[in-house]
Design brief:
This protein is mainly alpha-helical and 281 residues long. It is 55% helix and 9% strand. It is built from 9 helices and 7 strands. It has helices at 39-68, 78-105, 113-139, 146-167, 175-189, 210-213, 226-231, 241-247, 253-267, and strands at 8-11, 22-25, 34-37, 194-196, 202-203, 220-224, 236-237. It has a 3-stranded mixed sheet with strand order 1-6-4. Strands 2-3 form a two-stranded antiparallel ribbon. Helix 2 runs antiparallel to helix 3 and helix 3 runs antiparallel to helix 4. The radius of gyration is 24 Å and the shape is elongated. The relative contact order is 0.15.
Length: 281
């Protein structure tokens, strides 16, 4: 029996003017729908990436100034050095957070493995570039004593480590993931509409599930498309969506099994065609 919903359901502001952050398109009549971002979402993602790139350039510029000017002074201005380390870290982290938002609006495809890795982990790569040379040069600087090296080095390691940790995308989004989730929800419910809470990390099939009805500070359940949910920072569709759909959302086990089997078949990679044997001459 479905649990009575007590919290208010709020429709999120769509991340694109068309009413959602993305949609599905069909390349040909026999293919499954493939998720693509709307032009508005893609434009917003591009804006985020440009700002992130600018912040990262400033961070690397700050690193260069620190290496080629501050660390070459005798004595080294410790106050200025520490301030620059903090600023470089803030710029690197700010760029990474914006880059991750852009990737959730316009994710990469897993088909290009190199691009998929670089696009999703670029924030971590930038953090290494911005801090590793700086940390090495701090500890090898001849114009700083041991205490100064320890102080500046530890601060750089802590801030650089934080920038690296925040730059890593531990649940990188992909076109394939959005496609499978959107198709699953649409096949089951007839529309691309899911539900989540502000503090949760996943989204759900309906607003009646217990997880979204747990007590929260704002007392609200948010609804929107799969892409809207990802844009709001939600990593994926809840892993036990099948059980939720049957127990709380009013769908039969047969309906859920049909959708689940369809999703599994769509996610399977097509078998490679056998090589043709050359004809004898």
């Amino acid at each position: 029996m479905a649990e009575q919903r007590k919290k208010k359901v709020v429709r999120v502001e769509p991340t694109a003017a068309a009413g959602s952050a993305g949609g599905t398109t069909v390349a040909d009549a026999t293919a499954a729908p493939t998720w693509t971002p709307t032009p508005e979402a893609k434009k917003q993602a591009t804006t985020f990436r440009l700002i992130a790139g600018g912040l990262w350039l400033l961070a690397i510029g700050g690193e260069a100034f620190t290496i080629f000017w501050v660390l070459r002074q005798a004595p080294v201005n410790m106050v200025l050095l520490i301030i620059l380390i903090v600023v470089i870290g803030a710029l690197a982290i700010g760029g990474s957070l914006l880059w991750k938002k852009a990737n959730r609006l316009d994710p990469a495809s897993k088909e290009d493995k190199v691009r998929f890795f670089v696009q999703n982990q670029l924030g971590a790569i930038i953090a290494v570039i911005a801090f590793l040379p700086l940390i090495i040069l701090i500890f090898t600087n001849k114009d700083m004593d041991g205490k100064q090296k320890a102080l500046a080095g530890i601060i750089a390691i802590v801030i650089g480590g934080g920038a690296l940790a925040l730059g890593i995308d531990y649940a990188p989004p992909s076109v394939e993931q959005y496609t499978q989730e959107s198709n699953t929800i649409e096949q089951l419910t007839g529309q691309d509409l899911v539900y989540w809470t502000k503090s949760g990390s996943v989204f759900h099939v309906c607003a009646e599930v217990p997880d979204v009805n747990k007590e929260s500070k704002d007392g609200q359940i948010y609804e929107g498309t799969v892409a809207d949910a990802h844009a709001a920072g939600k990593d994926r569709l809840v892993s036990y969506w099948e059980r939720e759909a049957v127990n709380y959302c009013g769908y039969s086990q047969e309906q859920v099994d049909a959708v689940a089997n369809s999703a599994e078949s769509d996610s399977e990679e097509p078998a490679e065609a056998p090589e043709e044997t050359p004809a004898a001459e």
